[in-house]
Amino acid sequence: MRKFFHELAYTCHKTWVLLTRDMSSNPTFEQKVDIFGGHFRLGTGDYIFQSSSPTSTSGGIRYIVFLRDPLVRYVSGVLYQNKIFGRIESLEQVVKKIKDHIVNQRKNDLYMKKSLTYLLMPAQRDRFMDKSTKAKAMLAIQNLHKYNVILGMAERMPESLAILRHVFLKSGVETPLKDKAEAVFQKYGIIASLAKNGMGNHTAPSVSAVGVHENESSGNNVSTSAVVAELAKDKEHVPLMEEYIKYERMITDFAWIMHNLQYDCVMWEQSTADRTNE
After folding, report:
1. Eight-class DSSP state of 206
2. Which of 48, 125, 242, 259 could link 151 by a cystine bridge, Cβ 3.0 to 4.6 Å?
3. How far is it, in rounded angstroms, from Cα 73 to Cα 112?
4. Distances, alpha carbon 240 to alpha carbons 35, 95, 272, in Å
5. What is the pLDDT of residues 200-252, one digit of tens each?
């Protein structure tokens, strides 16, 4: 998605910056940056942009969060670590490593909590350090709702891009660069026939989006989907695995509700505009 936002900003003559560290208030940054992205905590922009407010209707920051199935995200993370460290492991080795890690985590009453690294606000990180994983997950859900976050789901990339297109390219608002920006959305996976699915139908067409790929283990092409499929075969281990990721899944389930509502609103507005133009 970094490539998408970089190309969209460049096409629209906007400034896009990748944040690699936490930042405090920065008037120069606020004046010159239109879009900032990266792996940072929800609410980080509130400390950078003095005009930002979670209840602001103009001039504030709108946060965009992309999530995916927690098990897929966990497996993808393992394979990504293999890739960057040059570890060559077979499918069987990867699966065993994941199972052993989950067993060890649950023995210590630990849960997967990767999303909490980003969905808890900076001020909440230390304040709620001693709270349970469940309490933190519920707080993360509250944050998604509080900020009215734009929710993209990796499993529904065309739908997610349709929501972003609605935000960045307002219906009925024509600009000299709109056609070029439209081409960027087309390139990265949104397709014209998407609207034909209609409201309430969240099975998006299958497309090959640029820059959206499965992680693979370095050297031997062990894919995320292959590992997930292999893990699902062990019926005895599946309940433990689901227990380990249950709070991540709680967050993702809520995110799906927000995503589907946002997509339905986009499709409703589009269908209304189409009827008006007939």
Report:
1. P
2. 259
3. 11
4. 40, 14, 47
5. 444 444 334 454 555 555 556 789 999 999 999 999 999 999 999 999 999 99
Which residues, in sequence order, are CB contacts of 5 under 8 Å at separation 6+? 16, 35, 37
CA dist 60 and 54 (Å) reads: 7
- DSSP letter at 192 equals G
Q: In the chain, which residue ranges form alpha helices assigned H by DSSP? A: 2-11, 27-32, 44-48, 70-84, 91-107, 116-119, 122-127, 133-146, 157-168, 178-187, 224-233, 238-244, 246-277
pLDDT over threshold 90, residue 46: no
| Domain residue limits at 205 | 2-277
How crowded is residue 94: how many other Cβ atoms within 10 Å of its Cβ?
23
- pLDDT of res. 23: 61
Q: Is the dihedral of CA 152, 56, 34, 177 positive or negative?
A: positive
For the packed helices 70-84 and 224-233, what is the interaxial angle rounded to 10 degrees? 120
What total of structural domains would you count in the chain? 1
Q: Which of 27, 33, 19, 28 is nearest to 61 (CA)?
A: 33
Residue 67 DSSP SS3: strand
Q: What is the DSSP string of 11-59?
A: HTT--EEE--S-----HHHHHH-SEEESS--TTHHHHH-TT--TT-SSS
